[in-house]
């Protein structure tokens, strides 16, 4: 049987997959063989457990029909698409008329395809005139986006995966690449081992992660002391003269004030603040300073912070002062979390941006988009819309009349989950567009729209290294599921925008979108569904090609190879930041810093991976990691149950005592929402303070305390088995209602 080449729909590594039906395709029992696509340039045939098992969940517990209810305490009833779409259009019109367009919000996701994202931007930002489209990328990549824009003049990671095999020194900070971007790490690890000591691997993480275990140097810093660490490295680079004066002179701006800031970070002080030794700090600086090429990788340990943008810019500073960019094996590389968060950025999928890496605040940018969308001048609001957390605050204050959620599960993944749930409960009208049912957010929805997911719609995704892959449909859509972009377009037409939503196929939507990238850093005018289907994945920039000959001309895989940056004067900008410290530092009442993150097998809120036996067996239950000395003080052993409490909520977890975490720091995986475990929600504990520049929440650090659980408290607990039974019951109920 023929196989389909596509992209893994989980992480931003973006591995190529080949999917072949094993048995006769039949929506209920179908069976696919999934393997790595050897021809995919990013992954070269490799896959991790998530990609390999993806087919095991695509047919389970799907949301099949549109469902509605008037209030949250009623059961859902099945309705036709016409009925659901009319109700939505009617509601939007009413809210726009009575409260204004700013009362309409859409909260999307890096798991939408580019066509979905683009169509949603047109609907909200163009036709309705509100920039209230934000995505879960706000919780994920927005600090990296802000840092790139401020330091380089544009978003866009300047590096590529080949750099993993060309660098002399890899500096991994705030990233557990081995578990979260496994195939990127495989490529780096293989090369690092092959080079036997000639290539250095530095990992900065308060935990000794799977990633850190491979490092030549692991800096287990105190949480959120990254700026101090990096300014300390800069201090040594300057003192030793391990800098690139020519690059600084010709390609940058703002070095003098930066050098003045760095002057305040002598090694002894830095080592003390970070909780490492001077020798470790000097070793890191020496490897950075003495290596021909330095590649840094970062993700949530940097971005998810009230100083997220400052941290990412401080990392970029190191590259600028040492001229480590625009060359093979060199550059700052933010690893994108979700499979198409990159495509979302290209399509303008955050509340302050527009398609083609444009900014809402820029009048010329707005005008270019309005013209392309055939809308009157002034249609796009000059004010950035509400960012993810501000939407929760808007709901709390009764300022939101329509809350439309697509491809994300905020009732698990937002910070301060009790406050989030209370805000969701206040929503007068929530639409949830998801592929699965139930998810935790369904409990807060008035309308459920069944989404066709990966493999059931044809569309485009861009991975971390700017490689664009066409993902064709290979199976029938279950029930009445529809592609997200089709749903947005249909609502647009019902609101009177027939001309704006005339596209009939996703190929047409993509063709329209790429025109808006012409002449931009992310120029993709040379790409189309057809070309990507014929030629396979292609990296951008990829401007329009006139002839087939020029189509095959090799382009540069890196950005800024001429050391010119898309700022007004062509120079990259140094940033000057001192560390501000944690929003919620530990104190006698809440003496631990709780951090959190991901495990190798699970994906976020488990809507897919929780339904895959192999992965459930790998990670059967949520756990709390604690250092042996902390455990001793609390008289705890591995396997004991505790309640972790913060100022906002609590979670009950089993303790794992491990040397692999700093004293005073605790770790909880983020994957167990209310459907998958009893009272183990990580975000019950987190707070909602955000980075003032990127508006990204500080999910990675909250102050907590730990209380051993008594027999009495345990009585109320359900076992994991009972929890999964209750999930199955919920699913059966849902099916019965159909
Ligand atoms: N298996 C798996 N892979 C995934 C995902 C998944 O759900 N499961 N999700 C994808 C998505 S959307 C994303 S965003 C990425 C996230 O990928 P990562 O960012 O690698 O994942 P996290 O586990 O959230 O956090 C990374 C590390 O930050 C560390 N950290 C915490 N605080 C600090 C600090 O103050 N300083 C430093 N230097 N480090 C700190 C944590 O200990 C943790 O090891 O993963 C993607 N890949
Ligand atoms: N404490 C803590 N919280 C975090 C984080 C953390 O590190 N710590 N990380 C944050 C980050 S980086 C992220 S990215 C978020 C992730 O958080 P979420 O986005 O809430 O997590 P997912 O489980 O990936 O939810 C995606 C949903 O989209 C649905 N879906 C899949 N494909 C499609 C499709 O094609 N169309 C539609 N309509 N639906 C689809 C899935 O069924 C699933 O329910 O969590 C954030 N929250
Ligand atoms: S590394 Fe990421 S993209 Fe590759 S198979 Fe695993 S989850 Fe999928
Ligand atoms: Mo993410």
TrEMBL record:
Show where the 4Fe-4S Mo/W bis-MGD-type domain sits. Answer: 1-62
Which GO terms fall under molecular function for this chain's record? 4 iron, 4 sulfur cluster binding; metal ion binding; molybdopterin cofactor binding; oxidoreductase activity
Transmembrane portions of the chain: none
CC terms in the record's Gene Ontology section: membrane
| Keywords linked to the UniProt accession | 4Fe-4S, Iron, Iron-sulfur, Metal-binding, Molybdenum, Nitrate assimilation, Oxidoreductase
Keyword RNA-binding appears in the UniProt entry: no
Under the heading Pfam families, the entry gives: Molybdop_Fe4S4, Molybdopterin, Molydop_binding
- Looking at the keywords, is Iron present? yes
Named cofactor requirement(s): [4Fe-4S] cluster; Mo-bis(molybdopterin guanine dinucleotide)
Q: Which domain of life is it from?
A: Bacteria
GO annotations under biological process? nitrate assimilation
| Family to which the UniProt record says this protein belongs | Belongs to the prokaryotic molybdopterin-containing oxidoreductase family. NasA/NapA/NarB subfamily.
According to UniProt, the name of this protein is Nitrate reductase
Q: Which organism is it from?
A: Leptolyngbya iicbica LK
Could you read off the lineage of the organism from its UniProt record? Bacteria, Bacillati, Cyanobacteriota, Cyanophyceae, Leptolyngbyales
């Amino acid at each position: 049987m023929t196989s389909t080449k596509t992209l893994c729909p989980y992480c931003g590594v973006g591995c190529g997959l080949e999917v072949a039906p094993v048995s006769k395709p039949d929506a209920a029992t179908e069976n696919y063989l999934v393997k790595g696509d050897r021809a995919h340039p990013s992954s070269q045939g490799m896959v991790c457990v998530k990609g390999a098992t993806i087919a095991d969940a695509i047919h389970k517990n799907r949301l099949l029909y549109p469902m509605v209810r008037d209030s949250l305490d009623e059961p859902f009833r099945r309705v036709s698409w016409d009925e659901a779409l009319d109700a939505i259009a009617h509601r939007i019109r009413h809210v726009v008329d009575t409260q204004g367009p700013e009362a309409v919000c859409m909260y999307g996701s890096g798991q939408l395809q580019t066509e979905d994202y683009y169509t949603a931007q047109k609907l909200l930002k163009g036709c309705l005139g509100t920039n209230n489209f934000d995505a879960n990328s706000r919780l994920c990549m927005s600090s990296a986006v802000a840092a790139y824009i401020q330091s380089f003049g544009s978003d866009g990671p300047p590096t590529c995966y080949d750099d993993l095999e060309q660098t002399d020194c890899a500096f991994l900070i705030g990233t557990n690449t081995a578990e979260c971007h496994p195939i990127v790490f495989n490529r780096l690890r293989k090369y690092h081992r092959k080079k036997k000591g000639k290539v250095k691997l530095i990992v900065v993480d308060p935990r000794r992660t799977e990633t850190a275990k491979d490092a030549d140097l692991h800096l287990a810093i105190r949480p959120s002391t990254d700026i101090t660490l990096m300014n300390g490295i800069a201090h040594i680079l300057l003192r030793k003269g391990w800098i690139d004066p020519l690059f600084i002179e010709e390609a940058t701006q703002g070095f003098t004030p930066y050098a003045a800031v760095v002057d305040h970070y002598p090694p002894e002080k830095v080592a003390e603040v970070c909780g490492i030794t001077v020798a470790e700090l000097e070793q890191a600086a020496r490897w950075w300073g003495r290596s021909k090429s330095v590649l840094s990788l970062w993700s949530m340990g940097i971005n998810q912070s009230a100083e997220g943008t400052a941290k990412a810019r401080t990392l970029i500073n190191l590259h600028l002062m040492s001229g480590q960019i625009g060359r093979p094996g060199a550059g700052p590389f933010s690893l994108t979390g979700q499979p198409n968060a990159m495509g979302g950025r290209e399509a303008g999928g955050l509340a302050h941006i527009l398609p083609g890496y444009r900014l809402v605040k820029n009048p010329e940018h707005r005008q270019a988009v309005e013209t392309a969308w055939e809308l009157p001048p002034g249609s796009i609001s000059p004010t950035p819309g509400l960012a993810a957390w501000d939407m929760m605050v808007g709901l709390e204050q009764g300022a939101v009349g329509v809350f439309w959620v697509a491809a994300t599960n905020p009732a698990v993944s937002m910070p301060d989950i009790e406050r989030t749930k209370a805000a969701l409960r206040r929503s007068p009208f929530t639409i949830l567009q998801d592929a699965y049912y139930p998810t935790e957010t369904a409990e807060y929805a008035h309308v459920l729209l069944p989404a066709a997911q990966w493999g059931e719609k044809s569309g485009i995704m861009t991975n971390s290294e700017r490689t664009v892959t066409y993902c064709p449909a290979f199976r029938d859509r279950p029930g009445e599921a529809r592609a997200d972009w089709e749903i947005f377009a249909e609502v647009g037409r019902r609101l009177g925008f027939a001309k704006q939503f005339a596209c009939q196929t996703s190929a047409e939507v993509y063709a329209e979108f790429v025109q808006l990238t012409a002449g931009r850093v992310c120029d993709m005018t040379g790409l189309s569904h057809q070309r990507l289907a014929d030629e396979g994945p292609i990296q951008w920039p990829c401007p329009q090609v006139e002839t087939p000959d020029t189509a095959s001309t090799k382009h540069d895989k890196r950005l800024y190879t001429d050391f010119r940056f898309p700022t007004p004067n062509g120079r990259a900008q140094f940033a000057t930041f001192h560390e501000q410290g944690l929003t919620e530092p530990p104190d006698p009442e809440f003496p631990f810093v709780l951090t959190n993150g991901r495990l190798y097998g699970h994906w976020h809120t488990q809507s897919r991976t929780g339904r895959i036996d192999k992965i459930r067996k790998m990670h059967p239950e949520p756990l709390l990691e604690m250092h042996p000395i902390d455990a001793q003080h609390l008289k705890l052993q591995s396997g004991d149950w505790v309640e972790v409490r913060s100022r906002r909520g609590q979670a009950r977890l089993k303790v794992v005592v491990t040397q692999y975490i700093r004293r005073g720091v605790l770790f909880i995986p983020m994957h167990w929402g209310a459907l998958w475990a009893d009272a183990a929600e990580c975000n019950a504990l987190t707070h909602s303070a955000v980075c003032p520049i990127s508006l990204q929440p500080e999910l990675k650090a909250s102050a907590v305390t730990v209380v051993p659980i008594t027999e009495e408290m345990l009585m109320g607990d359900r076992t994991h088995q009972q929890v999964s039974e209750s999930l199955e019951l919920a699913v059966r109920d849902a099916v019965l209602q159909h």
